[in-house]
Amino acid sequence: MEHTFLLGIFVTIIGLVFLGTIILNLLAIVYILSTQDKTTIAMLVVNLAIADIIHAMGIIFFSSNLFTRSWIFGEFGCKFSLAIDVLCTVVIVYTVAALSIERYIDARSILPAKFRTLITFGLLVLIWTLGLLLPYPFIFYTYLAESTNTININNKNSTITTTIYSCQSYLTENELLVHEIILYVTAFIIPYSIIVLFSLKLLKFLRVWVKRKEKLTNASITRRRTRGVKLVLCIVLSFLICFTPFWIFKFYTRFIVDENVRRPLLQRILSYVH
């Protein structure tokens, strides 16, 4: 009973997070689309909000599975939940990386605005394409497995047998490990390196701007670019705070500790806590 009560509290909190994620991201999208100035940073923020909304849908599957202990969404639900988890994780992390690059290019005035728009649109297409390719094993090699669970009734000479459904893969453990390593490199090491590199460049450039702001002639452009840089740095910082613990825990439980002491529940919680 106590375990069910705690689960109820946790699911309630997750439900509030789900509603907050949907509402706040929708408000951000509506606000950005209502403005006349459609900048490259606006395109990337809208893309980030859309991916975040789709990713939040996974909370529905996760919360239901906590209570039922059996997968109730069928084989399509297995493939869909796993696919959107990988898809949106990739899209989110590379969108944040693109934000840091875009702000640095804008700060340095390296490329014209129209050319930056074309590059940003092309990057978004590449990001979603990569996000759709990486969950390939989950889409085509996942199935719904059926098993039975027998429970002995206390003080009675009888048992109750229930059918348990779970998502399983046709791939071997080694094949899944290879895919997980690819995910780790593609969705963590590469984009995080880009984010950290260009964030440091932005911080350095921002410090130079602060020192030179009194000497600059066009103060309005300087303020606009400074606000844009600060906004992206805030997004990057919040992203690193939310996602880094998940990836560290995922790496630790998969490659360092023994498989028998893994904590899949905590891993899923860290996955959706952002």
Main attributes of the structure:
elongated, disordered C terminus, 274 residues, two-stranded antiparallel ribbon
Biggest sheet overview = 2 strands, antiparallel
Overall helicity: over 70%
The assigned structural class equals: mainly alpha
Low-confidence stretches: 259-274
Q: How many domains is the backbone divided into?
A: 1
State the separation between the terminal residues, measured CA to CA: 29 Å
Order of helices and strands, N to C?
HHHHHHEEHHH
Strand arrangement, largest sheet?
1-2
Strand content: 5-15%
Please state the CA-atom Rg, rounded to the nearest Å.
23 Å
CATH class reads Mainly Alpha
- CATH-level-2 architecture: Up-down Bundle
Summarize model confidence as the mean pLDDT.
Answer: 78
What does this structure look like?
There is one protein chain. The chain is mainly alpha-helical. The protein has a single domain (2-139, 174-272), classed as Rhopdopsin 7-helix transmembrane proteins. Helix content is 76%, strand content 8%. The protein has a two-stranded antiparallel ribbon. The longest helix is centred in the C-terminal third of the chain and has 40 residues, at 173-212. The chain is elongated, with a radius of gyration of 23 Å.
Write the layout of secondary structure elements.
Layout: H1 2-34, H2 40-56, H3 58-68, H4 74-108, H5 113-133, H6 136-140, E1 142-152, E2 159-169, H7 173-212, H8 219-256, H9 264-272
Antiparallel strand pairs: 1-2
Helix pairs in contact: 1-2, 1-3, 2-4, 2-5, 4-5, 4-7, 4-8, 7-8
